TrEMBL record:
It comes from Arenivirga flava. It catalyses: oxaloacetate + H(+) = pyruvate + CO2; 4-hydroxy-4-methyl-2-oxoglutarate = 2 pyruvate. This is Putative 4-hydroxy-4-methyl-2-oxoglutarate aldolase. Its EC number is 4.1.1.112, 4.1.3.17. GO terms for molecular function: 4-hydroxy-4-methyl-2-oxoglutarate aldolase activity; metal ion binding; oxaloacetate decarboxylase activity. InterPro entries: RraA/RraA-like (IPR005493), RraA/RraA-like_sf (IPR036704). PANTHER family: 4-HYDROXY-4-METHYL-2-OXOGLUTARATE ALDOLASE 3-RELATED.
């Protein structure tokens, strides 16, 4: 999917709103400006350790190139689940990006390799002996959005959205139409029209309205 050009997350979010679909993951932002990625989701879920301990997980061995790793650490910001080793291997194996409902560390490595990461922040404390890998390739629920393995995730400077795989073509086409309408509004205003007139002419205020 890496060669395919997709609409920005803002337009995809508008399309999801119009279709009544959740998909925008609040509080997860780009680690570096200008990064953009998309691909099918590979899910991983962490949980707190108990007296039996656990492992941080070696799931990178199971991920197909071009996938986006989506890690749910329950939004925790007190310990990380992604660092330099994972970044180096993911980059080498041509994984498209990593998205974390939680924090990451070794951010200089991601910057050096231009490997795209989205997270809830950055913090250096290890997750070893604090969290363990609970499951991979199972559904996740983050910020009210249910995400299944294989769903399409898109990330850019505005954050990340996830689109159900079965609705991807529909959402993408609608987002492209929204982009086209916005371009026409800008062109009309540049040619001397008013913003109010241009928005009314092209139905701007109903673009994100949920369809009945």
């Amino acid at each position: 999917m890496s060669a395919v050009i997709v609409p920005p997350t803002a337009s995809l979010s508008d399309a999801l709103d119009r279709l009544g679909l959740p998909g925008s993951l609040r509080g997860i932002g780009a680690l570096a400006p200008g990064q953009r990625a998309h691909g099918p989701v590979f899910t991983a879920r962490y949980e707190p350790v108990d007296e039996h301990g656990g492992t941080v997980g070696d799931f990178l061995d199971d991920i197909v190139a071009g996938s986006v790793v989506l890690i749910d650490n329950d939004g925790r910001t007190d310990c990380t689940v992604w660092g330099g080793i994972m970044t180096r291997l993911a980059s080498t194996r041509q994984i498209a990006a990593t998205v974390i409902h939680g924090v990451c560390r070794d951010t200089a490595v991601a910057a050096e390799l231009a490997y795209p990461v989205w997270s809830a922040g950055r913090f250096m404390r290890t997750g070893k002996d604090r969290v363990r890998l609970a499951a991979t390739q199972t559904p996740l629920r983050i910020d009210g959005v249910t995400i299944h393995p294989g769903d399409v995730l898109v990330g850019d400077d505005d954050g990340v959205v996830v689109v159900p795989a079965s609705r991807w073509s529909e959402v993408r086409e609608l987002a492209e139409r929204i982009e086209h309408v916005e371009d026409r509004i800008v062109a009309d205003v540049a040619n001397g029209g008013t913003l109010r007139e241009a928005r009314a002419r092209h139905g701007y205020h109903s673009l994100q309205t949920k369809e009945c």
